[in-house]
């Protein structure tokens, strides 16, 4: 009887060990599968971020070593700070490391829930893009944000800026109000939502978000130069910071 009992316990122990092994195997496979899914999702997100529909949305070489992608709102004060600082950064980095070192691509992310004229401004800049003035009107809107941002006559003010830039106003108004332009801007908003973005500007460097982004040219330059050092990119010229 004693031998039977002992044998039964051994069987139970053996079955228990097998169960533990199988359970651990299932957990490992599950974690591997989850990791695969997450990696695939991250890869897809990176591809979505880096995909730019048209070169006219990009300042600089589209194949630059450092590609910044900005999800932005023309009525956003923080976006204004970033975009006012960036031309200095662009000049400094490309002057020091070479003209194909840094680029910036813009993507529409109008915060319609808090900014009265976010969509109007985005539609207007997209209409200007169709006449080759994307960056021109965008710069004016950031610089004069306090003039048009919360006003009821923002449409006439922005039309005035477009007129000063020498745009064909009949075409500008027609394009601004067209379904095609609205679809383009709304596609950017949809992409931002799918990526789970919740603030502007959200800026990615080579597909990775620049967290804790400081909105000064000096801080942006430092972040970019740190990345260049990681990549082993050396300066071709000695220059000083724009600050």
Strands across the major sheet, in which order?
1-3-2-4-5
CATH architecture of the largest domain: 3-Layer(aba) Sandwich
Tell me the Rg in angstroms: 26 Å
The parts where pLDDT drops under 50 for at least 5 residues are: 1-11, 28-43
Number of domains: 2
Structural class: alpha+beta
Can you offer a commentary on this structure?
It contains nine helices and five strands; from the N terminus they run H-E-E-H-E-H-H-H-H-H-H-E-E-H. The chain has helices at 2-50, 77-97, 118-129, 134-143, 145-148, 154-164, 169-176, 179-194, 217-230; strands at 58-59, 66-72, 102-108, 202-205, 208-209. The chain has a five-stranded mixed sheet, sandwiched between helices. The radius of gyration is 26 Å and the shape is globular. The termini are far apart.
What layout of secondary structure does this protein have?
Elements: H1 2-50, E1 58-59, E2 66-72, H2 77-97, E3 102-108, H3 118-129, H4 134-143, H5 145-148, H6 154-164, H7 169-176, H8 179-194, E4 202-205, E5 208-209, H9 217-230
Parallel strand pairs: 2-3
Antiparallel strand pairs: 1-3, 2-4, 4-5
Name its key features.
Glutaredoxin; single chain; 9 helices; alpha+beta; 243 residues; 9% strand; 2 domains; 60% helix
Task: Please sum up the structure shown.
This protein is of the alpha+beta class. Helices cover 60% and strands 9% of the residues.
């Amino acid at each position: 009887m004693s031998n039977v009992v002992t044998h039964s316990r051994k069987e139970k122990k053996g079955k228990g060990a097998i169960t533990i092994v199988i359970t651990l195997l299932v957990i490992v496979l599950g974690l591997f599968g989850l990791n695969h899914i997450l990696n695939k999702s991250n890869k897809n997100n990176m591809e979505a971020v880096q995909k730019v529909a048209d070169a006219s949305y990009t300042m600089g070489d589209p194949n630059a070593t450092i590609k910044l992608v900005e999800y932005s709102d023309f009525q956003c004060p923080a976006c204004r700070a970033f975009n006012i600082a960036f031309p200095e950064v662009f000049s400094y980095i490309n002057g020091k490391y070479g003209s194909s070192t840094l680029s910036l691509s813009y993507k529409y992310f109008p915060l319609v829930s808090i900014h009265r004229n976010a969509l109007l401004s985005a539609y207007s800049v997209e209409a200007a893009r169709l006449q080759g003035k994307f960056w021109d009107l965008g710069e004016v809107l950031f610089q004069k944000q306090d003039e048009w941002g919360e006003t009821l006559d923002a449409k006439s003010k922005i039309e005035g800026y477009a007129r000063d830039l020498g745009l064909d106003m009949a075409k500008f108004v027609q394009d601004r109000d067209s379904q095609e332009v609205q679809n383009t801007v709304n596609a950017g908003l949809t992409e931002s939502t799918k990526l789970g973005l919740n603030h502007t500007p959200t800026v990615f460097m080579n597909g990775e978000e620049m967290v804790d982004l400081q909105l000064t040219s000096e801080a942006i330059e430092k972040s970019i130069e740190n990345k260049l050092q990681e990549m082993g990119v050396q300066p071709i010229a000695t220059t000083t910071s724009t600050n």
